[in-house]
Fold each of these.
Amino acid sequence: MEHYFTNSQNLRSEIRSISYENKGQVFTFFSDLGVFSKDKIDFGSRLLVDTILENEKRKNLEFLDVGCGYGFIGITLSLILDSCVEMVDVNKRALHLCERNIKENKIKGKCYLSNVYENVEGKYDFIVTNPPIRAGKAVVLEILLEARNYLKKDGVLWFVVRKDQGAKSLIKNIETVYNCEIVKKEKGFYVILAKMH
């Protein structure tokens, strides 16, 4: 079984497009085999985006989407918040789609290959992630804990995780570094806002 955080040379391609609307903005996302949630925008990502938009009223921010896939979270937030996004992933096919989706939706942003924060150099107003649970707890914790090194002074981390995929133990693991608030609970998903102590 190929996972969406691996790069397979022999994976066939079946491009499809997904339409999505939020706050009167209509988006088109190109997707393909071998990427996360290829046929529809997954519920957790939509809940994460909607929760951030309910809580973040500022514009012209700089933010980072870690494990961006084909770019749904970063592109949607960038357009609606009129902000500049950087998006990173380890999946080359997902990044190729993400580049296409950046152009298609005409946002301010870029995407590039990075294993977690390996190639990331900036500091951000916020970091957002729907972490790749199947990559294992060590990877997820690295994404969450290392985020602090890439946040501006008052920067925050937003993430979504299912209760049955260990949301509570993840919160416990990162509370040494962050104050965590469960901002939204819906259909077994928790959207969590983490601020540095």
Amino acid sequence: MKHPNLSHLSIDRVATNKIRRALSKNNRVTITVNLDSDSLKALKPLSRNTGIPYQRLLNTLLTTNVTQQESIQSRLNRLEQELRKIKRHVAA
């Protein structure tokens, strides 16, 4: 398959930055957070390696962790409910 010649294309960085700013402002709240220096030292190289700004990466990590915790808690609640049913059945 012949690859198309894309050398004449250019990136409109101004428009791209406008779009990124508009998307990043949706549902965002500015806060101050105290982090320990070790966490920040670990986060910044990860940010550089992924190319994701460290504050956005921190937000992603927090969101992922909270979502996983909610999922774990809901599974635990469901398992506890099933265990109560089994205990009632065995006791009967």
Amino acid sequence: MLKIKFTFVILFVLSYFFQLSAQDRSLKVYANIQYLNSRPMPSIFNYTPALLAYNGISLVYSVKKEMWKNEFEIGGNIYHLDEPFAEGFSYYLRYEKGYYTPLEILKKGKLAFGLAGKIFYLGEYFRVSTVGGWPLKNEVGGLALEAFIHIEYKITNQFYLDLNSNFSPITFGLNRLRIDNPNLSVRQRTTGGFDFDMLSERLLRIGFAYKFKQKKINKES
């Protein structure tokens, strides 16, 4: 809980700093969906590939100035809801820098692209493990770098839809797996290592956003 509170504080401070010179500000909620059997990052212990898979939700604070946009995102997912012997969760912080092209899509659509970085963490605990019947704990943390493209479509002056998809993701992670098997030594119970992957996670992100009204500043001559 302390880590989650700390991430919210960071998100608030950064958003306030960029708000000072912003032209457009908006708040957005994303539903994240994996597609084409991609492997999530961080990867859960008993992951099964699927054509489409839900990958959690996220909250985004977006700041646009001229043709550039900065987005600050916090998101996560809860795992094993249908398994009483297991529990798990993941959360991440993501920063996105995008550029809007002059191209218009269906008169109300805008196309943007850019780069994003993400810091992530996963924690899982199995009271009855699939490995020898012993309790198991899985932890994964790391950094992901990716390019993205997204389309914003205006609904009203205050609301718009956002379709966002990443491509060419590169992930750097550390994993730690602990099996509480009393037949093993303390050192043997814990394994881990470095994980480098490319093109692992493919996400389609469907967002709904509220655009704050701009404040009018009266200049005295």
Amino acid sequence: MNENEVWPYVLILPGSKSELKKVFNTLFKSNIPLEIVGLFKDCEKIYQSDIIKKFKNHSNKSILNYLKQLVDTKILETGIEKIKKEQRSFWTKWYKLTSIGRYILSIFNPEINEEQIKNLIKELFSIYVTKVIKIAGNYGINPSELNMLFQKALGGA
């Protein structure tokens, strides 16, 4: 691999080692979690039953376990809603990507459109700046100093 083949990813990762280990284990211990994340490229939310159907070669229990891990690591969020189908109403669970989940999808899905990339950059920038300001405050760095550095960087852009 040469230098031109390397993409300079900025990784937004949890601060604690145990949480970091949990995220890496969830995503990379098997290819199924990344495949689950990949299902979301064209939609806002997906129902649990639809996810299970996509992975019919795997047990429901293992897919539900992967979904739970993705929720625990804040890659997916979940909710329940009432659906009416043919005179029947029932509750069903849905999943959707969190901002971190959308970022992970962008890393492994180069087919996202320009608008999605713009939104993702803004979202990640906001997360990053918020965290940097908090960390800087812990070390006595005034936010105005960071603002000056930011303004200086903008002047050089």
